[in-house]
Design a protein that fits this description.
Elements (H helix, E strand, L loop, with lengths): L1 H6 L2 H5 L3 E2 L22 E3 L5 E3 L14 H15 L5 E5 L30 H15 L5 E5 L10 H8 L3
Parallel strand pairs: 4-5
Antiparallel strand pairs: 1-3, 2-3
């Protein structure tokens, strides 16, 4: 699917973040985000569009807003639940959603308020996964998220986290 997306196929491409660039000829990335592994979080494709990758260019970010992406996640969960798996590890669980408009972070970003992690919409995704698990099992499967979040130290962040985790 990644290959289809890069070459420009519509449906596959829509599952990832491909955007036009800034500048007169689109020569600048859509925003100023930096990859966690260094350098820009955007790579320009052969068609001039920019692809978002918060880690490496070989791992483009899925667009968590896209209905097919969400449905595919749930299909994968159901597949494994039907085979008896009791839990899941979700890598970069905090980064499934991005703030609308993908705003710049600026020169000195607040690590507790970044537009590419711990965005409100991610919690609806978690709730949908939880519902998918409940419908398949007599017990609740255990989701385990590998995430980092600056907001998770002292209040009110812990209070906010507690409110978000409820179904």
């Amino acid at each position: 699917m990644k290959r289809e997306a890069i070459t420009g196929s519509g449906r596959a491409r829509d599952r990832f973040w491909f955007l036009p660039g800034r500048g007169r000829d689109g020569e600048l990335p859509p925003n100023d985000w930096q990859s966690f592994f260094g350098g820009p979080a955007w790579t320009r494709g052969p068609d001039g569009q920019w692809c978002l990758h918060m880690f490496t260019p070989e791992q483009p970010d899925l667009n968590g807003e896209h209905a097919e992406v969400r449905a595919e996640f749930e299909d994968i969960l159901r597949f494994w639940l039907d085979r008896g798996v009791d839990g899941f590890r979700v890598d970069v669980a905090h980064g499934l959603m991005k703030q609308p408009g993908l705003p710049d972070v600026g020169a000195d970003p607040d690590p507790a308020d970044l537009p590419y992690q711990d965005c409100d919409g991610v919690h609806e995704i978690y709730r949908s996964w939880r519902r998918a698990g409940r419908r398949r099992l007599r017990h609740q499967p255990m989701p385990f998220g590998r995430c980092w979040c600056q907001r998770c130290s002292p209040s009110p962040s812990l209070q906010q986290w507690g409110l978000r985790r409820r179904p």
